[in-house]
């Protein structure tokens, strides 16, 4: 049994946790639910030993823990999969997975690499990571890195397993495999803490749920005894209504046509069109080729090739800057930590990167800070970004608020075509609805054309009005959902049939 008693934690200008007391039983899957910035990840980091609490104590099986760091927590039987991707990019997948257990594979010659790689391959198979254990971890997609982190946590025979947004970038197929694993751990007596913004996952997997709001514990309930609307109301402090969006106006104007896009080993002979004001969904399993196709379009993949037509005119796109500033085509990356943000820069600087040139004086080259700050302040308000100010370092924001900054940066650029990759990774239900409403408004009211890459099936069905399904590095199916009257389950089955 894991017990938290009166946990408090503060950062400069922010009280992240206040007098949080909760008990997590062994052999149970216990969810932590709350809005972005509510304190969930901070609580996970206190339990794992990454943060030391300012007040209160942590107890495991009746014994008080005074953890010095994450390694100390691991030795006490506490393993964690963090929301932020934390891998050694120049090490192999096997080395990353087995990092905490290297001493168990020592031999008189050094490390027994054959046995180590064999165990890593077994763990990779459990989480559905179909790679060579010797592959360099830095070359993996964000979803593959996330699965690597999960496999690493499984390598430790833990008493307590902390999962902070483990399914944020993986599809239903990979999530189902993970849930089967987690249920098996529960049945062996492991205490599992599960943080997710996907309400359907909490009801499908968890026995109990504790809601945190503004650093305070609001309550703990059994998932079997509460309805979704009541759980969401606990989380956001008000009644919540889902917006039924219906149809999008159709347009005959093709703004983007892609023919025979290919990148060796990543995507093969992919072709599609995008209409003005359309939301086109890309769906498929991890590694199916969705993100590699996007990287070809923005000029990031130098090995890739494709015929690209914008407004019927053939173009060559050689760089991200050329895509944005010459062709008004932007890409919101799935990997905000490594690619989407400059973590040591302020919120204001990250938001302004794409518009500095627009507000620079033609002769003096001086940037008009007043006008830029006005644009940034509007972005913060429209997306409800929780920050102490534009001068706050973006690395100090919660994961969900970092995601909002990553999206807002490209919205400021005012491009005509947006490729948005996993837009609501690590985002709470209230913020997710805000982002969904924003994407819908961009298409419907502003005529923006959007490619939506998502592993979240409800999100896909809610927003996309046409879907391209990817499997084995190819586009294998297309569905028109505009006006489709079937329910979500029936549509999901149709899409899933393309993946088998």
Can you give a write-up of this model?
The two termini are 41 Å apart. The longest helix has 16 residues. Helix 4 packs across helix 5. The chain contains 17 helices and 22 strands. It is globular. The chain has two domains: 235 residues, 3-Layer(aba) Sandwich (Rossmann fold); 244 residues, 3-Layer(aba) Sandwich (Rossmann fold). A six-stranded mixed β-sheet has the order 6-9-10-3-11-12, sandwiched between helices. Strands 18-19-20-15-21-22 form a six-stranded mixed β-sheet, sandwiched between helices. By secondary structure, the protein is an alpha/beta fold.
State the share of residues found in helices, binned by percent: 25-40%
What is the CATH homologous superfamily assignment of the largest domain?
A: P-loop containing nucleotide triphosphate hydrolases
Instruction: Give me the CATH fold name of the largest domain.
Output: Rossmann fold
What is the tally of helical segments? 17
Indicate the mean pLDDT: 87
Shape: globular
Q: What's the count of strands? A: 22
Low-confidence stretches: none
Q: Helix/strand-derived class?
A: alpha/beta
Number of domains: 2
Q: Please state roughly what percent of the residues sit in beta strands, choosing from under 5%, 5-15%, 15-25%, 25-35%, 35-45% or over 45%.
A: 25-35%
Rg (CA only): 23 Å
Overview in brief:
The protein has two domains: 2-236, 3-Layer(aba) Sandwich (Rossmann fold), CATH 3.40.50; 254-497, Rossmann fold, CATH 3.40.50.300. It has 500 residues and is α/β, with parallel strands linked by helices. The chain has 17 helices and 22 strands.
